[in-house]
Amino acid sequence: MRAQDVAFRNPNLLSMASSYAEATESKALFIGAHSEDFSGYPDCRPAFFDAFQNVIDVGTKPETEIELKSLFVEWSKTEIAERELELGVPYESTWSCYRGEEPACGACDACAFRLEAFRNAESRDPIAYVERPEFS
Ligand SMILES: [Zn+2]
Hints:
The chain is mainly alpha-helical. The protein folds into two domains: 1-75; 76-131, no CATH class. Helices cover 38% and strands 4% of the residues. The chain has four helices and two strands; from the N terminus they run αβαβαα. It binds zinc ion (ZN).
């Protein structure tokens, strides 16, 4: 799967999440975009999230206060993986692949970033892949 296959995805996801957040009086939305997404995914850039915060502020009731948090937006996927490994994140329970079924494809951008991050962090991703590059 390529970047154009998920074009303008985050506005759709954030719109649904914003609706749910307002209905449940939630105070924050979190999105896990990272810096390596910038080149192929304009809706993963800090400017987009700043703009979407404005959409939330203007598009919800005056008393609604939802903060859009993109905590990892300046981090690389490797930095995220290294921190998560330090924290003991149960990676066997996580998912990144754009493919909607197991095993993960190993070839989409999300799988490529994930596998590269594990390699750079000198660790091995515990989930199953259809194809796993030799280096991972
Ligand atoms: Zn994949």
